[in-house]
């Protein structure tokens, strides 16, 4: 633990916590401060000037990262009839109807994304407490309740992420791995920020996107200067 503390402090000392870094430079500093032996995840924390307790200020959406997240997602699909074969041919890891629902009720949770056809949702609804608390419940607003199963599975496998503002007004999202190039991470970060900027609630007054920070799983964060993206969005 002491060794890890020293490594963290050394990495933190390379970053000025009061400075806003250009996106490329901030990414380099954050990734450069990664000291774990595994391929750390690179995360983005976006603090918004919204109050999520008001439904009209809830910011939620999806984004297909250009270079994916670096993680291979296990995708399940609730379907019946011809949609079962469509889901299997599209690369879904597990496909089923009543038997898949029962499997989850019995404790199966070895998956990262859940997709459902609309005609299965009445039955999938009984999994609300199980999937909902893990953020895995299929949702039509996020494109995970659809008859276009093939496209939904491909997007999930290609690096589609879901994001939602938390109670504190912060959106946390994975934008890649330490092993990614700076250019790959920049592309992912930029697209995510552009997506969130487009979701500014019409009723919001004042500053929408307040701060953006990038960090790795174990390392310190660097605050990013997103003024250029903000100017383009207006």
Keywords:
three-stranded parallel β-sheet, 2 domains, Ribulose 1,5 Bisphosphate Carboxylase/Oxygenase, 234 residues, single chain, alpha/beta, four-stranded antiparallel β-sheet, Rossmann fold, 9 helices
Broad shape: globular
Helix content range of the residues, please? 25-40%
How many domains would you count in the coordinates? 2
Q: How would you classify the helix and strand content by structural class?
A: alpha/beta
The CATH architecture assignment of the largest domain turns out to be 2-Layer Sandwich
- Largest beta sheet, briefly? 4 strands, antiparallel
CATH topology of the largest domain: Ribulose 1,5 Bisphosphate Carboxylase/Oxygenase
Helix tally equals 9
The averaged pLDDT comes out at 92
Please indicate the percent range of residues in DSSP E strands (runs of 2 or more): 15-25%
Question: Looking across the biggest beta sheet, what order are the strands in?
Answer: 7-1-8-9
Query: H/E series, N to C?
Result: HHEEEHEHEHHHEEHEEH
Radius of gyration: 19 Å
> What is the assembly state of the chains in this entry?
single chain
* CATH homologous group name of the largest domain: Ribosomal protein L1/L10, rRNA-binding domain
Distance separating the two termini? 47 Å
